[in-house]
Amino acid sequence: MLMEAFHKAHKNFPEGGTCLEFGVWVGISYINQADVIVTKYPNSILIGFDSWLGLPEEDKHVWKPDRHSAGNYQASKSIVIDKLKNINLLEDSRFKLVDGFFEQSLTKELQKTISNLIFVNVDVDLYISCVQILEFILPLLRPGVVLYFDDWKDPGDKYDGKWGEHLAWEEFIFKYPHIKYKTLSINNFNQRYIEIE
Question: What's the topology of domain 2-196?
Answer without folding.
Answer: Rossmann fold (3.40.50)
